[in-house]
Design a protein that fits this description.
Helix 2 crosses helix 4 (about 90-105) and helix 4 (about 90-105) packs across helix 5 (about 105-115). Helix content is about 75%, strand content about 0%. It is built from twelve helices and two strands, in the order H-H-E-E-H-H-H-H-H-H-H-H-H-H. The longest helix is centred in the middle third of the chain and has 55 residues, at about 150-200.
Length: about 300
């Protein structure tokens, strides 16, 4: 008994879908063939080729195209790299660089550069310049008059200038980072000294026969550190005034300085506010007797002199 050769409705539908997929892939293959053919057609420029390839890349319709590898085995394209190698004869890096030239420098200039014989190195150097300097080259008189050497010299000069500016910015960035590292080390050093001082104080015991001298010593220390804090605040305020008085600062410099100064003032204010809150709560009963340490020292001295008399 022979097997049935009739096609079911479901099978017919799958065949129809398969034909649609093949037709879509064939359209892409046709486009790819057109792009390849442009390489050999003098009347069609590389610009047209790049536009077609760019369209295929963006749509990703290169996926699924069939090709034969070096062993004669049929495979499907799954990446843009495979498409470029097997259908364009170039690596994706080369194709992407050409697409970048088109997208960044523009169709008109790219066509003009081909006419003048500018190389890929020149175009790459031009792409790496800031946009305003790219425009300076593209709209230069040298391009208009077709002076290839003048164009290359202009690109080289701008590249050297741009590199010098970048080197200067890197140097400034390194100096800033070095200063930041110094500030971090200073902060850590202050914190370590504060811990050492706290340990030193904890080991100090008040003695009945020496409490006056010990009290004077601690009040003197408090006055010294209060003066240091006032000096630090005064220096910060001087920096602020110097910053505000300078009308020649760029917006970027102003932003950085403002950010740093605001944080410094905020940190000081919050730390001192927290310290005051904790101290006033711990010594709340003595708030009515609060007065400057120097006044207390003077009272102790006066009291000592009275006792001697």
């Amino acid at each position: 008994m022979s097997k049935s050769t009739e096609i079911t409705a479901a099978e017919e539908q799958e065949i129809f879908k398969g034909k649609e997929v093949l037709a879509a892939k064939q359209a892409v293959l046709t486009q790819s063939g057109q792009a390849t053919a442009f390489n050999y057609m003098k009347q069609i420029s590389e610009i047209a080729e790049l536009k077609v390839i760019g369209s295929i890349k963006e749509s990703k319709e290169y996926k699924g195209l069939l090709y034969f590898d070096e062993n004669g085995k049929q495979k499907q394209v799954s990446t843009f790299e495979e498409f470029c190698i097997h259908f364009q004869g170039f690596t994706a890096k080369t194709i992407n660089e050409r697409l970048a030239n088109l997208n960044i420098l523009g169709e008109q200039f790219l066509e003009r550069s081909q006419q003048l014989g500018l190389g890929y190195r020149d175009l790459r150097a031009l792409r790496q310049l800031p946009e305003d300097e790219q425009t300076l080259v593209i709209e230069s008189e040298a391009v208009e008059t077709g002076d290839k050497e003048a164009i290359k010299d202009l690109i080289a000069d701008l590249k050297a200038q741009h590199k010098k500016e970048l080197d200067t910015e890197k140097k400034k960035a390194k100096e800033i980072d070095d200063q930041r590292q110094v500030a971090v080390r200073m902060r850590d050093d202050y914190q370590m000294k504060a811990m050492d001082y706290q340990n030193e104080l904890e080991s100090t015991k008040f003695k009945a026969d020496a409490w006056v001298d010990q009290t004077k010593h601690l009040l003197f220390e408090a006055t010294k550190y209060e003066s240091n804090a006032v000096e630090s605040l005064s220096r910060l305020m001087a920096l602020r005034e110097h910053f505000l008085d300078d009308d020649n600062l760029s917006p970027q410099v102003t932003e950085y300085l403002a950010a740093g100064l605001l944080h410094s003032f905020k940190t000081l204010a919050e730390d001192f506010a927290q310290a005051w809150l904790e101290t006033s709560n711990m010594l709340e009963g003595y708030l009515p007797k609060m007065r400057p340490s120097l006044d207390v020292l003077q009272e102790l001295n006066d009291s000592a002199m009275s006792n001697e008399e």
